[in-house]
TrEMBL record:
Residues 110-142 have a biased composition (Basic residues). Pfam families: Linker_histone. Residues 91-142 are annotated as: Disordered. It comes from Rhodosorus marinus. Keywords: Chromosome, DNA-binding, Nucleus. Its main location: nucleus. InterPro entries: Histone_H1/H5_H15, WH-like_DNA-bd_sf, WH_DNA-bd_sf. This is H15 domain-containing protein. It is found in: Chromosome; Nucleus. PROSITE patterns: H15. One of its GO terms (molecular function) is nucleosomal DNA binding. SMART domains: H15. One of its GO terms (cellular component) is nucleus. GO terms for biological process: chromosome condensation; negative regulation of DNA recombination; nucleosome assembly.
Length: 142
């Protein structure tokens, strides 16, 4: 009789990645809100944004899960598909706006400038040159 060698199963030592509370759907909503593109965000841009923030998730798994989540979310009408891009539905926009007012206030304060620093521009030279030309034309017509 021939004895078979004892085989041992390999236990994966990879640690499971931690997903946010809403899973891939929450990551997609956050990515689209961060990108803020008017015509919608492409799946590739969404994927790049998520992979940048969640580097611990394997790339091949992330592609599959994001693609499936995008399909699910369009069926549930959480996203609107515009050509080959995705936009947040009105109900999702309202949720993200409520969560982000603190950031918006901080950016508005930085954007405002004191009114005293505005300088008046000197009149341009092109207006003077055109005035001289029109004066010569009027003299020739007489």
């Amino acid at each position: 009789m021939v004895k078979k060698a004892a085989t041992t199963k390999k236990v994966s030592t990879k640690s499971k990645s931690t997903l946010p509370a809403g899973g891939y759907e929450a990551m997609i909503v956050k990515a689209i809100a961060e990108l803020g593109e008017r015509g919608g965000s492409s799946p590739i841009a969404i994927l790049k944004n998520i992979s940048k923030t969640h580097a611990d998730i394997p790339e091949d798994r992330l592609k599959l899960q994001v693609r499936m989540a995008l399909k699910r979310m369009t069926q549930k009408e959480k996203l609107v598909k515009v050509k080959a891009s995705y936009k947040l539905a009105n109900s999702e926009k309202a949720k993200t706006k409520k969560a982000a007012p603190k950031k918006a206030v901080a950016s508005k304060q930085k954007a405002t400038k004191p009114k005293g620093t505005i300088k008046k521009k000197a009149p341009s030279k092109t207006k003077k040159a055109t005035a001289k030309k029109t004066g010569k034309k009027a003299a020739k017509k007489k």
